[in-house]
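Throughout our pipeline, every protein is held as a single compact record rather than as scattered files. Nothing more is needed to write down the fold, since each code stands for a local backbone conformation. For reference, a complete record is included directly beneath this paragraph.
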Amino acid sequence: MEVQAIMMAFDLLREFLPQHRAVEFQSNSMAALLEARDMVTKPSGEGMFAVSLQYVRAMEACRFSHIHREGNEPADWVARRACTHEFIWGPGESLPQPLIQLLLTDFLFDPP
């Protein structure tokens, strides 16, 4: 599930933030980060995320970082919304503005 979330984030980057050419993905799941990194570095060229993976490979920089759960503000925001409100977010729906701001703050960095 966490790997799919990272793949969906690749797709969101491609669709909604194409002007950004460097990204850092943070997760508290080392296994998910390693699997996502393998998918980026060892392309199969097939599957529903093939176009998004190709987009990420063409970026100037892509970094995967392991962090503690408490340090991932976008994930915390989504978890809090899911627990405290009726929160339904499906494919094709636009991202909530507060989440976009957290993603931009959390995931983007200056390329080396």
About this structure: The chain has one domain: 2-107. Residues 25 and 64 are 5 Å apart (CA to CA). Residues 2-16 form the longest helix (15 residues). The chain has a mean pLDDT of 78.
